[in-house]
Amino acid sequence: MLPTPSPFYYLAHFHQALDWLSLREGLLAPEDALWIARFRRQPQDAQALLIRLTMRSPAHFRISRLDYPEIDISLAVNTLTDLGWIAQDHLLTPSEAFHLLRKAELDALHGAQPTKQAHWSVMAGRSDQTFHQWARQHDCLTLTIRDQLDRLRLAFFGNLHQGWESFVLEELGITRFPKIEMDMSCGFEDQQEFESCWQAHQLFEQWEVVKSRRKVPRTLIAQAIALPNQGPTLRRLRSKLLASMARHAERQAHYSLALSLLNESSYEAARLRSIRCLEKGGQTEQAWRLALQTRCFYQADSERDSVFRMLPRLSKALGKTWPRISRHQPNGVEVFTELNGRPEPTAAQWLDRDGGISLFSENRLFTTLFTLHFWDVIYAPIPGAFFHPFQAAPADFQHPDFVSRRSELWSQGFEQLKTDAGRQILWNYHRQFGTTAWGVDWRLSAEHIELALHCISADHLSAIFQRILMGHRKGMPDLIRFFPAQKSYELVEVKGPGDALQPHQRQWMRYFDQYGIPNRVCWIRDLADAV
DNA sequence: CGCCCCCCCG
DNA sequence: TTCACACCATCCG
DNA sequence: GATGGTGTGTCTCGGGGGGGCGAC
Ligand SMILES: [Mn+2]
Ligand SMILES: [Mn+2]
């Protein structure tokens, strides 16, 4: 909780990251290393301003509105401009100009308007040249080197959704990531993988911009397909990108393009989309064959369930017969009550007249218990799993071999669950309280946890943990209702009028019934229908 | 003038 | 940096 | 019932400032 001593704390943090990077040779390209060396030679003011700007969201700034007392702004701006890392005569698009200029300035430029928003319709039509002139005459500053700094961010964090502010948040105790022995690994096998991941992120960014347009971006698609497919990180990124592109092609009825993209993607639902594309493209026979294959070699319950919904339709289209298979029917209760606000609290209140204690937790309770019980497994210092100090989960958490690489530890954990009656969970709850960890919601009180452990048997916990471990996290029922006197509980999915069970919710309920875990659906009906 | 939204700061 | 969920529209048997 | 499209909350904290905007 000590205040950060230096006014240049953020620059010190960035240097820590640079030191981290320089210890991992062969990760960055030679040009990156040269850039870093050049950065290190610059005066402190220039370094500091550059880092300040990269930690802010826009690309364009007004120099007069930069308020950093620790920095000699004009010295820094001159240095950075000479280096070409920022520009003062950058072309502004109308949208950028709209955000950068204040209403009074727009009034002066284009005549007064009642609101700033009213300027937009005028500006959208103007040529960029207007604002280019304006930018040159005023104190606009554009950060032109964000890509270089983003590369370093990707190299350090292994992703682009964390930023340099992680350092200060941790230092101030706002976040508290698990303290795990780090090794000298990083998020990437080698420079090749890093480079490809960087490229994949770039393509994703371009795709996000382009995909709203109607035209099919052939070159972008070709580049995405050409991405190498080595290593789980890159495979995931590439598969996601290709699946997103395929979905777009499918919506525009470009089925053969969609199919070739899906064929390259190992995204979870890729095969299902392929079947739909074949079906919609008139290749019913092929769709049927792929569906039959998928029925036997499915990867997840969701894939199996979907294909069982498709097969009757496809069979019928081909004049074949398909046996009617009755679907699992979860238990339900109808509640007639007036509904104002969210249905879950209403249902909880209504149901609790039987003395139960409801908690509206969805996935949160069980993922919390899961991580607390398996803390030492999840945060085991496996080689390559932890490499920077701000990880809420091991780097291979999403990888296919996450479980098998720790199989001994998992079975020990499940063994321990049989005998220790939640001691592990409570111990970690108190020992780790507040630590940023995957799945853990610290708003759950110790009483909640104790109540859960009192009411839920170890067998049930174990069954639920098994399924979470297989990668199923979505779709847990809205409410858990405790009956401490009976040492029992039930899980309730609340459905308002006009809502229906989602596939993932059905799967959980089917699973609960297999293991004797009490569950039901609470259907809230309109009071008027009761009469 | 008060409110709200967005963004920044540490 | 999405993702999980609710809600709604459409078509079908 | 199947399918798919859209909307919504949340984006690790809590405090504060700038600016837009409508009410008075
Ligand atoms: Mn829910
Ligand atoms: Mn619900």
Gap between N and C termini, in Å? Answer: 62 Å
Rg over alpha carbons: 28 Å
**Biggest sheet descriptor:** 5 strands, mixed
Helix amount: 40-55%
Give the averaged pLDDT, no decimals.
93
Structural class, please? alpha/beta
Low-confidence stretches: none
Give a list of the ligands. Answer: manganese (II) ion
Quickly count the helices. 25
What is the 3D form? globular
The overall strand count is 8
Strand order of the largest sheet: 4-8-7-6-5
Per DSSP, what share of the residues sits in E-state strands of 2 or more residues?
Answer: 5-15%
Protein architecture, described:
- By secondary structure, the chain is an alpha/beta fold.
- 53% of the residues lie in helices and 7% in strands.
- The protein is built from 25 helices and 8 strands.
- The protein has helices at residues 9-22, 30-40, 44-54, 73-83, 94-100, 103-110, 116-125, 128-137, 146-157, 165-171, 191-210, 218-226, 232-251, 255-263, 270-280, 284-296, 301-317, 343-351, 364-373, 375-378, 407-420, 423-431, 446-455, 458-469, 503-514, and strands spanning 60-62, 86-87, 140-143, 332-336, 357-360, 479-483, 488-495, 519-525.
- The strands form 2 sheets. The chain has a 5-stranded mixed beta sheet, sandwiched between helices. Strands 1-3-2 form a 3-stranded antiparallel beta sheet.
- Helix 16 (284-296) packs antiparallel against helix 17.
- The radius of gyration is 28 Å and the shape is globular.
- The model has no long low-confidence stretch (mean pLDDT 93).
- It binds manganese (II) ion (MN) (2 copies).
- One manganese (II) ion is lined by residues 478, 493-495.
- The structure holds 3 DNA strands.
